[in-house]
Amino acid sequence: MAKNKMKTHKSAAKRFRVTKNGKIIRRHAYAWHKTGKKRRSTLRKLKLETEVSAVDKDRVLRLLGKK
User: Fold this and answer.
1) Which residues touch 8 (CB under 8 Å, ≥6 apart)?
2) pTM > 0.70
3) pLDDT at residue 27, as a whole number
4) What are the Cα distances from residue 40, in Å, to 32, 37, 43, 57?
């Protein structure tokens, strides 16, 4: 009997990407709404992408179908 294939969680696939070195990159929250009351420096920091924390790495990889 064939083993069931694991499907990619599509909403996770749109939010995360895996680099060649295996890092998982994500965007910051709170960056797109109500930006008028946020400082310019805060918005600049929120624009940057960052790496997913080590605690969440296994969970995200599973959602992406990589593990």
Assistant:
1) 63, 64, 65
2) yes
3) 94
4) 13, 9, 5, 30
| Separation of alpha carbons 27 and 31, rounded Å | 9
Number of Cβ within 10 Å of residue 66's Cβ equals 12
The predicted-structure confidence for 7-49, as pLDDT tens digits, reads as follows: 899 999 999 999 999 999 999 998 988 899 999 999 999 999 9
Tell which phi-psi region holds residue 7, choosing left (phi > 0), alpha (psi between -120 and 50) or beta: beta
Please say whether the beta carbons of 24 and 17 come within 8 A: yes
Amino acid at 22: G
The angle subtended at Cα 25 by Cα 59 and Cα 39, nearest 5°, is 115
